Amino acid sequence: MNRMLFWLTPLFLSAHLTNAQAPEPVFNYDEAKVGTYKLPNPLTSNTGKPVKTRADWENRRAELIQLFAENVYGQTPKQTIKLRFQTTAVDSSALNGLAIRKMVSIFFVDYPQVPSIDVLLYLPKSKKVAPVFLGLNFCGNHCVTTEADIPLSTRWMISGAVGEAAVNNRNGEPRATEKFRGMQARRWPIEMIIKRGYALATAYYGDIEPDHPQGWRSGIRSVLGDTTKADNWGAIGAWGWGMSRILDYLQTEPRIDSKRVITIGHSRIGKAAVWAGAQDDRFAAVISNESGEGGAALSRRWYGETVERINTSFPHWFCGRYKTYNKNVANLPVDQHELLALIAPRPLYVASANDDQWSDPKGEFLGAVNAEPVYRLYGKTGLGTATFPALNQSVGQTVRYHDRTGKHDVTDYDWEQYLRFADELVR
Ligand code: GTR
User: Fold this and answer.
1) How many Å apart are CA 102 and CA 112, to the nearest integer?
2) What distance in Å separates the CA atoms of residue 72 and residue 283, rounded to the nearest whole number?
3) 218, containing H or E segment
4) Are 213 and 312 in contact (CB under 8 A)?
5) What's the confidence (pLDDT) of residue 329?
6) Residue 308 CA to ligand 1 centre (angstroms)
7) May I ask which residue range the UniProt record assigns to the signal sequence (predicted)?
8) CB of 136 closer than 6 A to ligand 1?
9) In sequence order, which ranges of 105-208 are alpha helices (DSSP H)?
10) Does any ligand 1 atom lie closer than 6 A to the CB of residue 409?
């Protein structure tokens, strides 16, 4: 279907041109048409100096974070925010006695108008202290499990991702209904995670910012940042910031090994997870599940989603300045392999799916390949290969990659790889 779209577009395009309208963007799914591009070198400083040592890299790392903040995601506010953690429920025998389940709300003491982040935490009873996967969810904590006693989120609810299950409230805003319960449980194999000795922490991404262009008005960006600036933070920056606030809470939780917090994210939340992991090195490892454009996929590679398209469809995700690269991606001072390199020397997993060509699996793979020199600086092998693997084959060392069969999703196959990755590398 994607290929069809590509072949149909020129017809569409010429019809439009005769009407003297702006050409429709063309999305490429043909490897032969990708063309050539030159990636910026992560190991060359802003002033052109080669980065040779780990100490050099630490300076370069700060430069790169700044470049991503100025040009892509916007500046993450630096100020420390007073947080209050309130446990609202504890079930010491959840999941048939396998887990302790806690619900904890994170309040922003000086900004009572900003909604809390409501964390759902499962802790394995088999361990006194456990490593944890931390990931935001797309449609509320009640979506990740069928358990009937998780309160339905009362916040704005994304409707595209969950179809007709959302109903409008009195103000015409979509809200969750009982139909949402467990709707994405398949993506969150909590029992499997718990049985392997890991905890799981999740929260609804819409708690931090509702995912639409006006969403910032009711989220954390309504009080932090500066909307007049071209490098004001976008929604992805806010979601990433929220992950760090959940980590702040996890550091206070005695049953959590806070040195082993693995951040995981799918798709747009994957973009946020990588940006969070890049900035906040308290995250011990990062997992990007089909994060695609603006995530693990190279921006300069013309394949699938483009910078222009993402900025047009989702104008609130990135900073204003990112839009100035819509038609000249080659001028971006960074590319996404450098974002992945910011995770080094920590373990990183980049995963694709072969029916998800929109995310550009090969571009995600090449993002990981081109982060290699930075892992080498730390004496680590990153991916250790530049050969695209066969389907359903996990490759690499400190950096891992797979291209799963199937569509844009998070499956048990993906989780099995992530659990093995965590067992082997996040010790
Ligand atoms: C798509 C978007 C992708 C990806 C995806 C998702 O519409 O083009 O970049 O983020 O949404 O989050 O599911």
Assistant:
1) 23
2) 21
3) none
4) no
5) 98
6) 13
7) 1-22
8) no
9) 190-195, 205-208
10) no
Q: 374 to each of 195, 337, 340, 356, how far by Cα in Å? A: 35, 10, 10, 28
pLDDT the model gives residue 171: 74
Strands (E), 141-197: 167-168, 174-175
HSE value, Cβ hemisphere, 13 Å, CA-based, for 94 = 26
Structure tokens, 47:
């002033």
Mean pLDDT of the chain: 93
Q: Torsion-angle region of residue 163: left (phi > 0), alpha (psi -120 to 50) or beta?
A: left
Task: Examine residue 322 and state whether it is found in any structural domain, yes or no.
Answer: yes
Ligand 1 centre to CA of 358 (Å) is 9
176 located within any domain: no
The C-alpha atoms of residue 89 and residue 104 are separated, in whole angstroms, by: 7
**CATH number assigned to the domain comprising residue 405:** 3.40.50.1820
pLDDT exceeds cutoff 70 at 14: no
What's the whole-number mean pLDDT along residues 406-427? Answer: 98
Domain interval for residue 275: 10-147+182-425
Domain count, the chain: 1
DSSP three-state, residue 297 = coil
Q: Give 256 Cα–ligand 1 centroid separation in angstroms.
A: 31
Q: Are 194 and 150 in contact (CB under 8 A)?
A: no
In a domain, 173, yes or no: no
Question: What's the full length of the chain, in residues?
Answer: 427
Tell me the β-bridge partners of 50. Answer: 44
CB 292 less than 6 A from any atom of ligand 1? yes
Query: Which DSSP state fits 390?
Result: P
Whole-angstrom distance, CA of residue 171 vs CA of residue 312: 27
Please tell me if the CB atom of residue 253 comes closer than 6 angstroms to any atom of ligand 1. no
- pTM of the shown model: 0.94
> According to the model, what pLDDT value does residue 179 have?
86
Q: Give the C-alpha separation, 319 to 179, whole Å.
A: 35
Q: Name the residue among 147, 143, 145, 87 with its Cα closest to residue 119.
A: 87
Residues 6+ apart with CB under 8 A from 32: none
CA distance 346 to 135: 18
Q: For residue 254, give Cα distances in angstroms to 118, 158, 257, 363.
A: 19, 34, 8, 40
Confidence of residue 165 (pLDDT cuts 50, 70, 90): low
Indicate which residues carry an active-site annotation. 267, 408
pLDDT at residue number 15 = 33
Tokens, residue 218: 């009711």
**Residue of 159, 358, 360, 410 to mutate, ligand 1, most atoms within 8 A of C-beta:** 358
